[in-house]
Amino acid sequence: MPRTPTFNQPPPPGHVWADEASRLSGRSIEQLYKDRQKQKRTGSSNGPWCVSVGRKAAWRIADIDAWLAGQAPSPDEQSLRDSRPPEPARAAA
Description:
about 90 residues, alpha+beta, three-stranded antiparallel sheet
């Protein structure tokens, strides 16, 4: 299992390191780094976009927010009501 990275310097303005990106995005640090490897190999990513700062990885806060906004929208009240199965018929007493 990978070690949790430690950072001795502050991230560039508007960016966060992996630990804060994990907290903001709800993805584990390991998953963020897997997404980063996929991004480097294929040019696409399942998670927020990552940038390199020297040899370190940083995530733009704006990219995390955009990625979260692009996730499945939260259902509204009407669609929740429509998705419920009908109530069972009660037996006549």
